């Protein structure tokens, strides 16, 4: 049996501990029937580097959703990661735009 769904993808980029990020994602997904990937990444920027994660979200045919629902879930998960990883910012890369959130004053 093959099941398909429209291709929709979001990626969350955030610094922080891989194991803690995986636990946050595990808890988030378990509660709503959702699936993500979690990959370690190294951020290199002017004068420094730090470790973090990329959380991948696709329109998984087992749990299909529309674009607005996936975007809302990406924002909810990113916000939870922000708190659990003790970070100040994250980025969400979507099919149409990239958004950056920061709790630091502008």
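^ structure tokens above, recovered residues below v
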């Amino acid at each position: 049996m093959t099941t398909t769904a429209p291709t929709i993808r979001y990626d969350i980029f955030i610094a922080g501990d891989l194991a803690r990020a995986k636990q946050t994602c595990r808890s988030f997904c378990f509660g709503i029937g959702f699936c993500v990937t979690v990959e370690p990444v190294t951020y290199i920027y002017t004068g420094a580097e730090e470790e973090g994660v990329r959380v991948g979200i696709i329109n998984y045919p087992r749990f299909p959703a529309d674009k607005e629902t996936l975007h809302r879930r990406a924002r909810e998960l990113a916000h939870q990661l922000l708190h659990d990883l003790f970070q100040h910012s994250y980025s969400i890369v979507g099919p149409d735009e990239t958004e950056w959130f920061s709790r630091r004053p502008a």
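The longest strand covers residues 48-58.
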